[in-house]
């Protein structure tokens, strides 16, 4: 089987789902030639974990709410890839918030929106020339992660369609931010389709990570194995979709 993509960049890859994504990508039988594992603090103890994973791994500093840091990573990735462009961008970094109607304040809402909505959108904006370059060099090939793609790691907690009854936990900042991120995914899918770039939102399941906690039913290995299988199957027909880690379609 061909590699999922020649080059992949993952945000928030020092722990949780992001770390497992770069670990499984590097360990796959046909690994991507370039894996850009990015995190806020590559020199920190958790950043060093992803540094030791594989030979094709490049560790870069990216704080997704800091524009100069994103632009620095674009420059670093570009100098690695020369004129090949970036095939696959996985917007994984995110934060949660359990604020209730009683406890929330505007700053918390803004912080969660900055990380879960504005950050991923700016990452796409800044990496767009490299994604376009990859899409162009694939000629008239159909949409796929191998050609050029943006994957936004979402959550079914951001689905308005699944939230018609009383939600289990309102989590206003988190759920509203992920619903907004879903709209961003739909708009990107519509705008970038003609440029040859696929965009999809993926719900990873409820996963045992710092965010998901030990109570979650899914291991991070299981979730990421599913996500990578789904990514390999994406095509024109699924661009603009909201899918879970098993490939099931979710309502927006
Ligand atoms: N776990 C679940 O059950 C679950 C369910 C649905 C969706 N998700 C989504 O899956 C994604 C990953 O979640 P996770 O469970 O792996 O969470 P996690 O274990 O809490 O890890 C979050 C990652 O995001 C990074 N991050 C946060 N803010 C950042 C910023 N401004 N710039 C760069 N990196 C930043 C963190 O880096 P630091 O170490 O520097 O903080 C960390 O690497 C998130 O988008 C989350 O919403 C998770």
TrEMBL record:
GO MF annotation list = oxidoreductase activity
List the InterPro entries hit by this protein, alphabetically: Fungal_SecMetab_SDRs, NAD(P)-bd_dom_sf, SDR_fam
The record lists the membrane-crossing segments as none
Q: Name the GO cellular-component terms.
A: cytoplasm
Q: What's a Pfam family this protein contains?
A: adh_short
Family per record:
Belongs to the short-chain dehydrogenases/reductases (SDR) family.
Quote the PANTHER family the UniProt record gives.
Answer: C-FACTOR-LIKE (PTHR43544:SF37), SHORT-CHAIN DEHYDROGENASE/REDUCTASE (PTHR43544)
Name of this chain's protein:
C-factor
Q: Which organism is it from?
A: Malurus cyaneus samueli
Lineage per the UniProt record: Eukaryota, Metazoa, Chordata, Craniata, Vertebrata
């Amino acid at each position: 089987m061909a590699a999922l993509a020649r080059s992949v960049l993952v945000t928030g890859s020092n722990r949780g789902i992001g770390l497992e994504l770069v670990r499984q990508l590097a360990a796959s039988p046909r690994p991507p030639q370039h894996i850009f594992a990015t995190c806020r603090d590559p020199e920190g103890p958790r950043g060093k974990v992803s540094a030791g994973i594989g030979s094709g791994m490049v560790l870069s500093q990216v704080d997704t709410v800091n524009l100069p840091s994103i632009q620095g990573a674009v420059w670093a990735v570009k100098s690695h890839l020369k004129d090949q462009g970036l095939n696959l961008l996985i917007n994984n970094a995110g934060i949660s918030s359990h604020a209730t109607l009683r406890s929330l304040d505007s700053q918390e809402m803004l912080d969660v929106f900055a990380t879960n909505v504005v950050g991923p959108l700016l990452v796409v904006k800044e990496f767009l020339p490299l994604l376009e370059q990859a899409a162009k060099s694939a000629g008239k090939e159909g949409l796929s992660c191998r050609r050029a793609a943006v994957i936004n790691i979402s959550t079914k907690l951001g689905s308005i369609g699944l939230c018609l009854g009383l939600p289990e936990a309102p989590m206003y900042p988190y759920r509203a931010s992920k619903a907004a991120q879903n709209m961003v995914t739909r708009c990107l899918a519509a705008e970038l389709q003609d440029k040859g770039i696929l965009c999809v939102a993926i719900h990873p399941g409820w996963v045992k990570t710092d965010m998901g906690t030990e109570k979650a039913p899914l291991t991070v290995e299981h979730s990421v194995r599913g996500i990578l299988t789904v990514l390999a199957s994406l095509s024109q027909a699924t661009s603009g979709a909201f899918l879970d880690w098993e490939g099931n379609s979710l309502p927006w």
